[in-house]
Known about the structure:
Layout: H1 2-20, H2 25-57
Helix pairs in contact: 1-2
Amino acid sequence: MGQYIGGTIAIVGLVAAAWIAQYSAVAAGIIATLDLFGMVALFVAPRILENRNNSEQH
């Protein structure tokens, strides 16, 4: 369920950036960049934390 919500938020962020691009390319770029970094962090951070926890247990 969380992945669906996260995916929806990511798509809404990219759509908002596309809409804002017609008024301000800089603002749209900032919104899109933050949205993409958020998506990467969402998928990468849990794996990094999992690997860190596994290495500490051994």
